[in-house]
From TrEMBL:
This is Tetratricopeptide repeat protein. TPR repeats lie at residues 55-88, 89-122, 123-156, 157-190, 191-224, 225-258, 259-292. The keyword Zinc-finger does not apply. It comes from the Bacteria. Pfam families: TPR_1, TPR_11, TPR_17, TPR_8. It comes from candidate division WOR-3 bacterium.
Amino acid sequence: MKKTTSIITSAIFILALTAFAGRLLRQADKALEEGDYELAAKLYEEYTEEKPSKPDPYNSLGWTLDVLGRYEEAVEAYTSAIMLDAKNPTYYYNRGTAYLHMDADDQARLDFEQAIRLDSTNAGYYNNLGNIYFNNGNYERARLIFEKAARLDSTKATIYVNLALCAEYLDSTGLALSYYDKALALDPNQALVYNNRGRIYADQGGYDKALADYTRAINLDPDDAMTYYNRGRAHYRSDNLDLAIADYNKALDLDPGLIRAYHMRAVAYTRNKRYSEAIADYEKVLESEPENFEALLSQAWIYLTRGKTRAARGDNAGARQDYEMVVELLPDEKARGLEPEKNPAIEAERLLGDMGKSDKQPEEGVNSQ
């Protein structure tokens, strides 16, 4: 009788544990669905401690940890799932993705290849494998893999974007444009794609098309500084200097560290004869990139140009300051290698010399000795 009672008690305890574990899993799934990843991770961890023999909860735990940026822990969870079921391609794919987030490309590649061996019909597996080769500069191999992904699933815009990027790096801009067109036909709400296609149009001199694409990109993502910068360059190339400056201003509002925007705004200011503002922007460039000789040389030319403008207005003191600044910016050791006509310091020294001679002329009405 005691033995029977003991068996019944054990059965009730096991049923209670099973019910408790079941509630944990349901709560974890609900937290994951609602986007409460911290809670979901905690509950999945508790469940896998209670039920360590089921692979799917480890997979869900790994996915949740990956979202939280806890990549090493995610890898451990996926590995536990794989140890319990080594023939599930999803587990390898998910672990490969976590490795990818850790920049562990070799491990990620091995996992994606294993996922493909287990299921060669999944376009997503090929797409992520292609990303590894692309990130490592093997654009031709990446292109072949992305093409395989596209044959398996022609409805994924991301695959065509990746094909377009490969085509760009392989100098096939016409092909890149066709892939970007396909990507936008599948998903017209991709700011990055409009930005990239606009860049190609601009490089080909199609500024109207480029401006239209950049504007679409900005409408979709108004907080991306690079798109404003790119549109500013298209405006500049179209001789719309004020619009270019306005876009560079917006780019720098969004990202004050975008040094190239200071550089291009300085160029636009120079063409607009706004020399002081151009000089200030070149100062910003040189603060960040003190070895940027192009910026230094451009700044010297602006001082020379402003000095001439001041001299023409009779502001000899201001002109002298500007000429002296040119010489200070480009001493002989920095200007070495420049052809004389490309060295503003030579002209600045000559102009300073002329001003010195003028200073020695006798004043009107005073006899010279």
